[in-house]
Amino acid sequence: MSRVVQKLQQGMVLSLMMGAIAACQPASDTAEQSAADTTPEQTTEQAETSEPAANPAESPKSEDEAVASTTTNSSTPSTQPKAPEPKPVPKLPAECDSPETQLAMNTCAQAEYDQADVQLNNAYQAVKAQVSGVQADQLIVAEEAWIAYRDLYCEFVQAQFEGGSIQPLIYASCMTQLTQDRTALLAQTAPPPPSFEVADRDLNITYEDLQAALSLQEQEQLIDAQLAWLDYRDMHCVFEGGDRNVCFASVTVFQTQHLQDQIESRSL
User: 163: Cβ–Cβ under 8 A, 6 or more apart, which residues?
Assistant: First the structure.
């Protein structure tokens, strides 16, 4: 709770557990910590996959981005890396044109995530090839923060279907949506956001509405995911630079939509 209180003191209200969570003000621009000589990479060759713990026999595999070793030396100039050729995006299985069984739908949801993951990897590699030094380190930190948020949030989303045959589809769909959002931000194809004041207000309202519909355990899961999202948002916008409020608004719009989707799905 100390981190939540600190974010509340920085002026951005986000209700925590019965309305007590507070969204933070922008993180310090001094996030120049170096990643420990590692770069998060999501390449198909390097990635290791792991099943969601709730249903390992049926749940789609969640890609844990492997960390490729890199070395940096600020005292000596380095050659700017060249972006690798984009990986081909895998095609969906033929059955995904009209899946008729739950198993087929689960398989197709996983295949859609595989597509999104390759597209994200291509975008990440292209951006990584354009930066170096402190900015490269910031990109690494932001990507690691996004992975932590993604995993926590999709665990929250799938928890309500734990043990059900639809759980793999729900999990894979969540992973796909968050991955597509991340790709849009890295590739700078996200639509122009509203003002940060409007985006933040909408997020607060949506978050409070969702919390009111959850059990205590689900509230705790959402709190953890939301705190991880705040860290990701801050680290991404440190990397992006420029007008911090514009960046904050862009990331916030995506999260608000995710929370609104949860409200709607839980009211059915």
Answer: 54, 55
